[in-house]
Amino acid sequence: MLGQWKTVVMLGNTESAQILEERNKFMKDKQFPRTEIAGVSVSRMIIGTNWLLGWSHTGKAADKRITDRYQSPESFFPVLEAYAQYGIDTIMGPISDTPRMVEAIRYAEKKLGIKYIIVDTPIINVDDTDEARAEARAAIHKSAEIGSTFCLLHHSSAEQLVNKNTATMDRLDDYTKMIREEGMLPGLSAHMPELILYSDANGYDIETYIQIYNCVGFLMQIEVETVASIINNAKKPVMTIKSMGAGRTTPYVGLNFSWNTIRPCDMVTVGCFTPEEVHEDVEISLAALEHRFPNFERRSSPNNKQAVLNRNEKYDNVVMNGVEDK
Asked: What is the pTM of this model?
């Protein structure tokens, strides 16, 4: 079915009534699981935006490859549409700071007839001055203006408030109050895992957390096992990020690890560069949640006819996971 759907996507505006019917059936059968945060229904897979906005975590060449591809609302649409086919409507990033992402979301909403749930992570000035607070209030207002449901202080801002000596986040309430006043739900982007611990311990007005979490420990500040414990004991749902370590592990390994070591209320943020990657990552994720092997196409090799790849003259037309090799 996955391969059939890829064909449907490629047909674009020339879809026939039969193809549309197949698409609708596929979408109905393959809706991604959801969870709730403060009464708001969100998809458990969240759309990541690093691989749409040019933050590859690998190098300038990769960053340029991304930004060269994603310039206009139309260029973003195939990827956003691919997620939408599975009911994945929750999107994360410093969106209010990136006008082209806002434009892409608006374009996709109009084309698809849906409303995205925006998890905005604005970078704000947290200096302890009246001028800085006014600047922070303006940034938070801008987040509300683009229609964000959740406003989570970017880690680079939130971590400036941390006092490890007192296990507190000084003046955090100033900013969560601003977020509430703008009609959004407050949260914390926590590259430092202590943010979750301090927030829970002090009862700050926080509805959800973002936390780096992956099997290779990429950008994590302490052992994977310790962060896993923090996530599994958090008082609020956690949105995990960097599930594949920005390409340092394969989707099969990274996503299976994430889905099988978090709680049903938690989420995994998955950024993709192409629609094909979306379909593959969704299938791997659904298989992980359903405890089965994913139905995906075998990787390419200079010599595909190798026994280890289940391909040689003895194994012509072998069927793997319901997909027949030709």
From this structure: 0.85
Left, alpha or beta for 87 (phi > 0: left; psi -120 to 50: alpha)?
A: left
Beta strand spans in the chain (E): 34-37, 40-43, 45-47, 90-93, 117-120, 150-153, 162-163, 168-169, 185-190, 208-212, 238-241, 267-270, 319-320, 323-324
The whole-angstrom separation of Cα 255 and Cα 243 is: 6
* Separation between Cα atoms, residue 253 and residue 235, nearest integer Å: 27
Q: Each residue of 151-200: pLDDT tens digit? A: 999 999 999 999 999 999 999 999 999 999 999 999 999 888 999 999 99
Residue type present at position 272: C
CB atoms within 10 A of CB 71: 11
pLDDT tens, residue by residue, 120-142: 999 999 999 999 999 999 999 99
Indicate the burial class of 322 (C-beta count within 10 angstroms; 0-12, 13-18, 19 or more).
exposed
- Which of 193, 208, 200, 134 shows the shortest CA–CA distance to 159? 193
